[in-house]
Specification:
mainly alpha; Arc Repressor Mutant, subunit A; HTH_MarR-typ (chains A, B); three-stranded antiparallel sheet; DNA-binding; homodimer; DNA-binding MarR family transcriptional regulator (chains A, B); DNA binding (chains A, B)
Chain lengths: ~150, ~150
Amino acid sequence: MSENAQETRIADALIQVTRLVERVFAEVGRHCELTPQQAQLLCLLTDGPIGMTDLSRLLNLEKSSLTGLVDRVERRGLVARHRDTCDRRAWHVALTEEGQRAGAETHDLVNARLEALAEDLPASDRDQVAAALVHLLAAHRRTTAD
Amino acid sequence: MSENAQETRIADALIQVTRLVERVFAEVGRHCELTPQQAQLLCLLTDGPIGMTDLSRLLNLEKSSLTGLVDRVERRGLVARHRDTCDRRAWHVALTEEGQRAGAETHDLVNARLEALAEDLPASDRDQVAAALVHLLAAHRRTTAD
DNA sequence: TATTGTTATACTCTATAACTATA
DNA sequence: TATAGTTATAGAGTATAACAATA
């Protein structure tokens, strides 16, 4: 019974954290003149080019939805599509020079905001949350890998 | 340096958790024939009626955006607007009888999915994550209260 | 005057279905 | 046949600005 209450608290906390992160992306995005979705896309691409199929999986988007999102950001000159050298059907999405700047700024601001929240925690807690969240994500991956 | 890496891991983990929760709402919503946003709204309302201003704060939405969201769900007969007895400008949004069913099902499914992830954690970790997340959220509230 | 909520408008976001090109 | 990505379409979601009604 008390165990159940514990679990409910986790679900609630996860949902609230989600709204917090969404808000951070919205606010940082607005500061950079990006929609939340565009901000997320640019953040992902700061690690390097990603193929459309991988992107749609990472962002939980149908391929056609991603096409539109990439179109709009490409129209603004922030990303470019490059043909895959091995598979002529596939494309990689990469940041342009201007996109690098916007992406880096967005990425840094988002991380700074999220890290600032964690900074408030005792160092031991910080490690534990990170580890536990990673554990949680791994649990999900195992579930969906079925 | 290693501390910084730790913090970065938290930010990344929070972002990935966010995408996971978004996905859960999308999948559960689809199962209930609701959009992710409608599913979230109905989940919130399972605790009882909420005023428009409070809802817009809880969902991070401009008032006008919320008006549209509530309109669409009201058109489907899942919620109804009721005048505030004290303030004639204000309205409360409440689930209809049909909305109760949809909201309860959505709420239960979402919580079950999220709790299932946590179940995989050792009980001690579970408590710690919940506590730490709550701490994180409190840190944010303190920040925005300025 | 300030607050609550709506309307009007113009986008962006998104999924579904049908399609093209390549593997 | 299967996969990578696009196009067409329709609707949902969202913010901004201007507004109405009430406090």
